[in-house]
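Recall that a protein's primary structure is simply its ordered list of amino acids. Everything else, from secondary elements to tertiary packing, is in principle encoded there. The following example makes that idea concrete.
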Amino acid sequence: MTVREVAVVEVMPTLSAVPAQLPPTVGGGDAHNEKGRRRARELVERYGEDSLSPFILRPDKAFQFGHDGTGVVAYRFIGKTAVISGDPVAPAGQATEVLAGFL
């Protein structure tokens, strides 16, 4: 784990609820469809080292994928707020970039 990844882990509790900037039905283009769920599952199987990673696959989650598709942030809307479900699932060193793409 790099210093940058540690920083993301440390700030995640404070960023767990952010004002929604994404329309509820968009979420990176694959938020609510089967293709997006399959891609998220692949990423969890490959990079999901955290014990909470599998929970991003719950049916109430939407996904925001990293620009290159190798990382994902799971979230759901509560009112007008997007609540992030755990840490981003991404290759080592890319979690900060995936999270920044969401914010």
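The chain has one domain: 3-102. The first strand starts at residue 17 and ends at 19.
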